[in-house]
Amino acid sequence: MAAYLEVVNRRITTRFESARSYKSSFLNSSRQIISAKDAVPSTFFRLNVVLMLLMLASIFSYLFLSNLLVSERYTLSLRKQKFSQLSAELTSESIQKTSRVDDLLSFVKTSGMVEAKDISTVTEENGFALSENRY
Questions:
Q1: From the CA atom positions of the chain, what is the Rg in Å?
Q2: What distance in Å separates the CA atoms of residue 89 and residue 50, rounded to the nearest whole number?
Q3: CA atoms within 13 A on the CB side of 129
Q4: Which one of 35, 45, 89, 115 is CB 3.0 to 4.6 Å from 41, fit for a cystine?
């Protein structure tokens, strides 16, 4: 049992030491000065940036154009609805005018008026209609 504990203890200390050495090497490497050659972006990096900008531009143009298309369809549908509404109103007004003519004809018949047939020429004088046969 004691031998087993010694093996476990050795493994733990070995791992601890390796972690400590990794940490110290990381800290030392992060303190290094970056040379001017490393500061210049590579061609591959520039290509990636250009491709990402093109992708963003295409996404924004797609969003803008799709929004424009949807808004145009919406305004077109509103105009079609307004047109159909106005057509329905015009139809109802023409039906009302027909009913007004029918009301006028029924008034004429109930008042005892008759249709004028074989009319001689009617002239207008000072806003009054006169026939040529004056009494």
A1: 49
A2: 58
A3: 4
A4: 45
Per-residue pLDDT, 49: 93
pLDDT tens-place string over residues 10-66 = 766 676 566 556 555 555 555 555 555 556 678 888 899 999 999 999 999 999 999
Both tokens assigned to 78: 């509103």
Cα(10)–Cα(17) distance, rounded to whole angstroms?
A: 10
- The domain locations on the chain are 1-30, 43-109
Q: What is the pLDDT of residue 69?
A: 96
Closest CA to 120 of 112, 131, 106, 111: 131
**Measuring CA to CA, how many Å separate 98 from each of 84, 103, 107, 115?**
21, 9, 14, 19
User: What is the Cα–Cα distance from 123 to 135, expressed in whole angstroms?
Assistant: 15
Count CA within 13 A, CB hemisphere, residue 32. Answer: 9
